[in-house]
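Page 47, continued from p. 46.
Same chain as before, 392 aa.
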Amino acid sequence: MASGRFCEVLELNSTALGAMCEVDKRQGVYRDLPYVGLEDIESGTGQFLGSLEPRSVKSSTFRFSSEHVLYGRLRPYLNKVMLPDFVGHCSTEIFPLRPRPGLNRDFLQYWLRMAGTVQRINATSTGTRMPRANVSAVLGFPIPLPPLAEQHRIVAVLDQTIEDIATARANTQRNLEHARALFESHLAAVFTPEHQHPLVPIGDVGEVFDGPHATPRTVNEGPIFLGISALQDGQVNLGETRHVTPDDFQRWTRRVKPQSGDVVFSYETRLGQVAIIPNGLECCLGRRMGLVRVDRARIDPRFFVYQYLSPTFRSFLDSRTVHGATVDRIAIKEFPSFPIRVPGLAEQQHIVDRLDALREECQRLESLYQRKLDVLDNLRESILHHAFTGQL
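Result:
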């Protein structure tokens, strides 16, 4: 930990960013250099996602070298800051910042990536649809400026700490993906194309309804409006609940009024989303949604949904999807003919019980790994904050 005296040094030696670096706008048309666009910089980490192959673009660009820090001024909340180790050219939405003597380049990029700095810069933005940072205002921000030797020490500590956190985060992310893949692989094993039970059309085990063909006006309270975004991984998620007026509810349920146990699905936009209407939920459907009222003497709604989520059935859906220029869709009138497996109810119950237990465990693991990712992200921000308040 730094001494109290060093804390005072950090506070007293803060200076305007513009006094310690310049925006180097060497604009031109460059054809023989690698190109960096905003899409080539990973948010938060500054990792370069592009190619080192020479690339030209139609508009003029800024030239940069390994002396610069590349700062993405468009949508500054995306936190796109990169340390290039090559000579290239970049979009004019990216400003090459050249530190002056007395300011370490790595120290500068860590300060720019700190959450507090990002928030302050974002507050200078103008423009609603395409907000851009006011870089002139940013150059007036005070930046803590300890001696160069201390900057180097802080950078060395941050390099090692951030690298360790990144490694832990990558491992946790892999574990999270494995937890998600575990359930998917089990679904694939249960609902294989070679399954012993014969295929039957969906229309043989349930009645298929088309939902309304427009979207009702939503209000702050009233009966629930169920849109496609509420269908998540086989379940209804009412995290962002919307409502309709009682009169609109009556109109929008004339075609079909969802009941507990009905299976709802999307047939246009976000294809493959499906869920069961839970007990006690009174709702109307949004457009581009269909409903299957299954014959419970033949098939359990939960078994139907699990099969719908399986890779085998999703692959079949993809084969029947009409890919448009802007929208993909499935012909709802063909849905009753789509084939599914229907074993006996006892076997369905056995399969559902196993899948429910596995799903619960996978969701527990996902939640555990997601919390760990959040902790690691908070730790990274805490380390950066400590570095620039003399506490590292």
